[in-house]
Amino acid sequence: MGFPVMVLNYGSNSWEALAEQLGRATGRESEAAEVAAQFNDRASKAGAEVIHPEGAVSIVSYNFFGTYGVSKPYAAQARVLRGTSVCGSDLH
To answer: Residue 16: helix, strand or coil by DSSP?
Structure first.
């Protein structure tokens, strides 16, 4: 007897979409939606408290799983930071 398999694509989906997918699979859709709403509310409030830099912003991650990673504007990290309004649309 095999186990059910679920593939989660972290590369092209937002964490909210992944939470929704997992919520459907586990019968906890409303809880997943609530977590996403709470996070987005907290991110927005946190962004309002940050002194925003002038000009373009870059995200650089050092020693990211033993490598040097640079986030792309469409990456999950960039989408989260954009939700805080820290980066706006000028993320490079």
So the answer is: helix
